[in-house]
Amino acid sequence: MLVYGGLNFQVEHHLFPKISHIHYPRINKIITATCKEFDVQYIEYKKVKDAVLSHVSYLKQLSYPNLAH
């Protein structure tokens, strides 16, 4: 299901910007399986609230350079 204009498929959009958004759910399954196969971390939030909180937390980290990564 596409939620919030495809916000939940940002990876797919950036990897395949010219492909129609209707294909994103199927592409997502391929990407997540490929990441798992090659042991690449794929972060995905099922709830918008969790994605927003993660983003705010990351922005806070960036505002304190000595604490970032």
Protein model, in words:
By secondary structure, the chain is mostly helical. It has one domain (4-63). Helices cover 52% and strands 0% of the residues. The chain has 3 helices and no strands. It has helices at residues 10-15, 24-37, 48-63. The relative contact order is 0.12.
Blueprint of the fold:
Layout: H1 10-15, H2 24-37, H3 48-63
Annotation keywords:
mainly alpha, 69 residues, 3 helices
Overall form: globular
Largest sheet: none
Derived from helix and strand composition plus strand pairing, the structural class reads mainly alpha
Q: Portion of residues in helices?
A: 40-55%
Strand segment tally: 0
The poorly predicted ranges are none
Count structural domains: 1
Could you tell me how far the N terminus lies from the C terminus, measured between alpha carbons in angstroms? 33 Å
Number of helices: 3
Secondary-structure element pattern, one letter each: HHH
Instruction: Return the average pLDDT rounded to an integer.
Output: 86
Question: Strand share of the residues?
Answer: under 5%
CA-atom Rg in angstroms? 14 Å
